[in-house]
């Protein structure tokens, strides 16, 4: 689509645009280094993509250079017989003199009514804007848990899963591949073996800013259900403590019964728009793991 007045056009981001888009986003997000964007875009570029979806998203172009970008990270979910398409709407930035054209990006990004779009990292000042665009909240905040203080279930055994792990007893092939692929992205992947079942977990290292000194934590990226994390919190807490990460951040609607910690709603909101509401405790294949926290 071309706009003759300012010679601005909106088009898909291609492989040849990665360097220029990384430069643009580095300017737009001063807290992120250029290698952060390059690493994430190259990781995403190597993933299998659902058919018919744009590989990276869209950019605004003027005089042959990107002046705005919106990254779109598509993935396919199959919780039942039907495939569900999800798209993580990520990293929207437009240079100030071109902000009048910013809506071109959002209109292109959300045109497929069969896709569920998620925004997992909206800044607090953008919450009203996100809601005005038709997004609904599915996560109210974060629970900061100290799983070490939870009771350890008798007989629990933790298996660390890496990219080299071939199979895990008690997990499906799809769950094993999910753990392996995310371990390759830098996540910590565990299978917790209990007497009656085996449960998969994914965590990503994160530093929580509080005052002048950030402190280390883990963000829960995936489990089948938050109740499974509560059940396995004791052994997981001990395994994480050995790695210097006693604190776990869990997406939540409010305080989580059965966990020691505290809940905040001043950060961590997450939104969706589309036919299939996301569930808590599934941030797989999103910017959090592809690009990093």
Notes on the structure:
The protein is of the alpha+beta class. The chain has 2 domains: 2-139, Gcn5-related N-acetyltransferase (GNAT) (Aminopeptidase), CATH 3.40.630; 142-268, Aminopeptidase (3-Layer(aba) Sandwich). 24% of the residues lie in helices and 32% in strands. The chain has 7 helices and 15 strands. The protein has helices spanning 18-28, 34-45, 102-109, 127-132, 173-184, 226-241, 287-290; strands spanning 2-3, 8-12, 57-62, 65-77, 84-94, 115-119, 136-139, 141-145, 157-161, 188-193, 198-208, 215-222, 248-252, 261-264, 270-273. Strands 1-2-3-4-5-6-15-7 form an 8-stranded mixed β-sheet, sandwiched between helices. Strand 1 and strand 2 (8-12) form a beta hairpin. Helix 1 (18-28) packs across helix 2. The protein starts with a strand and ends with a helix. Mean pLDDT is 91; it is low at 1-5.
Summarize it.
The chain has helices at about 20-30, 35-45, 100-110, 125-130, 175-185, 225-240, 285-290, and strands at about 1-5, 10, 55-60, 65-75, 85-95, 115-120, 135-140, 140-145, 155-160, 190-195, 200-210, 215-220, 250, 260-265, 270-275. It contains seven helices and 15 strands. InterPro entries: Acyl_CoA_acyltransferase.
Strand and helix layout:
Layout: E1 2-3, E2 8-12, H1 18-28, H2 34-45, E3 57-62, E4 65-77, E5 84-94, H3 102-109, E6 115-119, H4 127-132, E7 136-139, E8 141-145, E9 157-161, H5 173-184, E10 188-193, E11 198-208, E12 215-222, H6 226-241, E13 248-252, E14 261-264, E15 270-273, H7 287-290
Parallel strand pairs: 5-6, 12-13
Antiparallel strand pairs: 1-2, 2-3, 3-4, 4-5, 6-15, 7-15, 8-13, 8-14, 9-10, 10-11, 11-12
Helix pairs in contact: 1-2
């Amino acid at each position: 689509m071309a706009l003759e007045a300012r010679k601005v056009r909106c088009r898909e981001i291609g492989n040849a645009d990665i360097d220029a888009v990384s430069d643009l986003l580095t300017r737009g997000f001063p807290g992120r280094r250029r290698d952060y964007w390059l690493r994430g875009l190259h990781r995403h570029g190597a993933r299998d993509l659902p058919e018919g979806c744009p590989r990276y998203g869209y950019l605004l172009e003027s005089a042959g250079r990107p002046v705005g970008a919106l990254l779109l990270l598509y993935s396919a979910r199959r919780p039942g017989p039907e495939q569900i398409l999800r798209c993580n709407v990520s990293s929207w930035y437009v240079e100030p003199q071109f902000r009048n054209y910013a809506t071109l990006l959002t209109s292109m990004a959300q045109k497929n009514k069969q896709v569920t779009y998620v925004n997992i990292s909206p800044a607090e000042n953008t919450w009203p804007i996100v809601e005005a665009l038709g997004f609904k909240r599915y996560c109210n905040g974060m629970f900061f848990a100290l799983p070490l203080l939870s009771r350890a279930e008798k007989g629990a055994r933790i298996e660390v899963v890496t990219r080299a792990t071939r199979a895990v007893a008690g997990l499906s092939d799809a769950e094993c591949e999910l753990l392996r692929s995310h371990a390759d992205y830098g996540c910590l992947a565990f299978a917790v073996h209990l007497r009656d079942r085996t449960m998969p977990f994914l965590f990503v290292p994160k530093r929580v800013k509080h005052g002048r000194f950030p402190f280390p934590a883990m963000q829960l990226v995936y489990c089948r259900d938050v109740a499974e994390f509560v059940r396995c919190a004791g052994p997981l807490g001990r395994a994480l403590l050995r790695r210097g990460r006693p604190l776990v951040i869990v997406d939540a609607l409010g305080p989580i019964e059965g966990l020691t910690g505290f809940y905040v709603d001043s950060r961590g909101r997450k939104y969706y728009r589309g036919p299939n509401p996301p569930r808590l405790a599934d941030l797989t294949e999103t910017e959090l793991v592809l690009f990093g926290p």
